[in-house]
């Protein structure tokens, strides 16, 4: 099973805590690798000659394409840090935090990617044609083409880094600590959701918007556990952020881009905010379950059965 691939058969609680300490240290290393990747952004702010007082002030210092590039650059270093932690500190093969299969199933990645690109694009276009007073077209060819290059090159790195940290590395780490599936699922979802607490939209809409982020983390965790790998989550997350970057932006989102459309409406808490969590994500789980014939839901999502296979030891470096 995917979540058990890094499991250590320790029974002494002190040894279990000691093993979990590696995950805390590993997370700190990844965090500092990410900070190192923010040095170019810091240098750019320094040379701008201005002192921003808030995150929104930083957006105003640079062209949105330049800011996006500098912001996403940190995830390249975070991914390098994660690779170092998994391979050198935990002595695992990196694929163990990606999938339980012998190699990455790219068909799963692209299926999930394609489904969410279509769904989210249809929703955005429907909103535009229904009321074009709140969503306007701001298409500008040259900045948009630059945006496409930055987005397609760096956005999958950003989303993959987040998925492999939360649905791979930390989920396996929390399983080693708790010896069940529900605790890693809930903990990674809550941490993933609260990680977005500094986003501008939280300031605009209030903390209730975190329900959407935590719900998204829960959805991604469920499909990861049921599918025995992160491929579906990787595809979905990449599609979500790429569409958000290229198709629509607003003045209160974390990334403000030269997208095709711009949402001019005032942010408000309504059913549309929770529609994905309450309607779309359950439908997607159902669709994926039928395509991949998922079974044994209770055990995979909340059980404590270890179900270790002898060949799983081969995933550890010698």
UniProtKB/TrEMBL annotation:
InterPro entries linked to this entry: Rce1/LyrA-like_dom (IPR003675)
The keyword Transmembrane appears for this protein: yes
Domain CAAX prenyl protease 2/Lysostaphin resistance protein A-like: 146-243
Superkingdom, taxonomy of origin: Bacteria
Membrane-spanning intervals of the chain: 20-47, 67-87, 108-129, 135-157, 182-199, 205-225, 232-253, 273-292
Keywords from the named record: Hydrolase, Membrane, Metalloprotease, Protease, Transmembrane, Transmembrane helix
GO MF: metallopeptidase activity
Record's protein name: CPBP family intramembrane metalloprotease
């Amino acid at each position: 099973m995917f979540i058990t691939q890094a499991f250590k058969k320790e029974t002494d609680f002190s040894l279990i805590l000691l093993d979990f300490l590696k995950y805390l240290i590993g997370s700190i290393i990844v965090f500092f690798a990410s900070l190192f990747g923010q040095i170019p952004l810091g240098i750019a702010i320094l040379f701008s000659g201005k002192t921003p007082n808030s995150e929104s002030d930083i957006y105003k210092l640079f062209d949105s394409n330049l800011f996006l590039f500098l912001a996403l650059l940190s995830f390249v270093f975070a991914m390098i840090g994660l690779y170092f932690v998994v391979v050198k500190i935990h002595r695992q093969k990196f694929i163990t935090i990606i999938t339980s299969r012998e190699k990455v199933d790219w068909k799963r990645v692209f299926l999930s990617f394609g489904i969410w690109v279509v769904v989210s694009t249809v929703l955005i276009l429907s909103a535009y044609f229904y009321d074009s007073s709140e969503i306007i077209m701001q298409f500008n060819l040259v900045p948009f083409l630059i945006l496409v290059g930055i987005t397609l090159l760096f956005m999958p790195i950003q989303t993959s880094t987040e998925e492999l940290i939360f649905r791979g590395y930390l989920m396996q780490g929390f399983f080693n600590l708790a010896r069940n599936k529900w605790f890693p699922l809930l903990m990674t979802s809550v941490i993933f959701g609260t990680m977005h607490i500094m986003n501008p939209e939280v300031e605009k809409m209030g903390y209730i918007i975190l329900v959407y982020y935590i719900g998204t983390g829960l959805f991604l965790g469920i499909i990861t556990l049921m599918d025995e790998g992160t491929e579906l989550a990787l595809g979905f997350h990449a599609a979500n952020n790429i569409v958000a970057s290229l198709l629509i932006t607003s003045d209160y989102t974390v990334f403000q881009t030269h997208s095709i459309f711009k949402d001019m409406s005032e942010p408000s808490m309504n059913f549309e905010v929770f529609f994905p969590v309450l309607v779309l994500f359950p439908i997607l789980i159902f669709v994926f379950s039928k395509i991949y014939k998922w079974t044994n839901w209770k055990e995979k999502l909340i059980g404590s059965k270890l179900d270790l296979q002898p060949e799983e030891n081969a995933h550890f470096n010698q």
